[in-house]
Design a protein that fits this description.
The chain has 98 residues and is mainly α. It folds into 2 domains: 1-31; 46-96, Membrane-bound Lytic Murein Transglycosylase D, Chain A (Roll), CATH 3.10.350. The chain is built from 3 helices and 2 strands; from the N terminus they run αβααβ. It has helices at residues 2-27, 63-69, 74-80; strands spanning 54-56, 94-96. The protein has a two-stranded antiparallel ribbon. α2 (63-69) crosses α3 (74-80). The termini are far apart. 3% of the residues are buried.
Length: 98
């Protein structure tokens, strides 16, 4: 009988360890992978959607005067009107401001 006591005890200890690990993993699942957040464009309220707006160039207007009147910047006007020369505006020409 003594000849089987040591292997039996070892087998019992290994079984207990395997079961302990198995049940330990089931009650504490692995951490989920971290979530990667991607920046998105803000959603606008349906009533607050931006509308495209144009103004007509009047005598004496410049990009800076149009920008000041419409609460924007010259850089923004240049970005909205890539084909328009900032130095040669014509009276009656339509310029996008929003």
């Amino acid at each position: 009988m003594r000849r089987y006591a040591a292997p039996g005890a070892l087998l019992l200890a290994v079984t207990a360890a395997v079961l302990g690990i198995h049940y330990g993993l089931q009650s504490h699942p692995a951490k989920p992978p971290p979530v990667t957040t991607v920046a998105s464009q803000p959603r606008l309220h349906p009533k607050k959607r931006l509308t495209v707006r144009y103004v007509r160039v009047e005598h004496g207007d410049s990009f800076s005067s149009i920008a000041a009147r419409n609460h924007t910047t010259v850089t923004a006007l240049e970005r909205l009107n890539p084909g328009v020369s900032t130095t040669s505006l014509r009276v009656g020409q339509k310029i996008r401001v929003h």
